[in-house]
Amino acid sequence: MKHTLTPQRYLILLAVMLTASVGDTLLSRGMAQVGPVDFHHLDRLWHALFNPFVASGIILLIGFFASYMTALSWADLTFVMPATAFGYVVVALLSRFWLHEHLSTYRWAGIVLIVCAVGFVAGGPSRTEHASSHPDLDLMDSGAGR
Amino acid sequence: MSPTNPTPTSLLHSWTAILGVAALAITGEVLIAAAMRRLGDLDLLRDRPGIRGYLGPTRAVLSSPLFLAGALCMALNFFAMLYTLSIVDLSLAAPATASLTFIGNAVAARIFLRENVDRRRWLATLFVCVGVVLLAQ
Questions:
Q1: How far apart are CA B55 and CA B50, in angstroms?
Q2: Is the CB of residue B127 less than 8 Å from the CB of residue A81?
């Protein structure tokens, strides 16, 4: 089956979901420690790079970009998009269970909707196959020619 | 000009900025998706085992003109978002740009990438949009 995702590909999608949200949270935490940056204090941006939270946030965001592009190399944009949206759910759940912030009913409804969206898309094919100019090669790809 | 209580002129200004951010994000994501679709499965581009095996895929991605154009749009999107945040509240700018980007991506993927955006994916896009707006409440 061409559309079956291997465990390794599920791991890439999991990385897409987690790295962006955790990376953003770490950046936000780090920049809160660094303090406001304005045009007269641009050197603070350089110092911010050495803040452990900012540095780990940047590493995670590089990881996000790499895993996002890897996912796009074998899946449709409209398949990967809900996975990136799941990052919002991760941030909301982190703020609820790690930072012990209150989540309103609206936010819980938002979480449920995004989880449903991921479920809808995950149940379908990951890639649109276009008519190829090499049908023989496609037949070999699918294993039917063997 | 107050971001919380915009006059009609600033309302137009705010929404133009929000639409600009979304348009740059959509263009960037579609160009990057087109580049990756053209390159194919990156795992197949790995020519040797271990960490050095990633050099091949990295080189292929960085030498793709479509990817470079997409990355430029994403960089412009970042600065456009910074500008937008200076005139619009984050509580409006973040969900508005995210929702518009999700809808725009689905439409652009259908038209330009010829992806099969079936009922299942349209529904997911709609759910994500409403979900993002609710999360921002």
A1: 10
A2: no
**Min CA distance, A113 vs chain B (Å)?**
5
- Please identify which residue in the block is written with the tokens 């020619």: A145
Nearest 10 degrees: Cα torsion A118, A90, B43, B116: 20
| Closest CA relative to residue B54, chosen from A24, A40, A73 | A73
Question: Which residue type, as a one-letter code, is found at position B70?
Answer: G
Please check whether residue A110 is in contact with residue B94, taking contact to mean a CB–CB distance below 8 angstroms: no
| Residue B60 buriedness (CB in 10 A; 0-12 / 13-18 / 19+) | middle
A48 lies in some domain:
yes
Q: pLDDT tens for residues B75-123?
A: 999 889 888 888 888 788 888 999 999 999 999 999 999 998 888 899 9
> CA–CA separation, B32 vs B61, rounded Å?
9
> CB of B70 within 8 A of CB of B35?
yes
User: Which B residues, 3 through 32, put their C-beta within 8 Å of a C-beta on chain A?
Assistant: 29-30, 32
Domain assignment of residue A1, yes or no: no
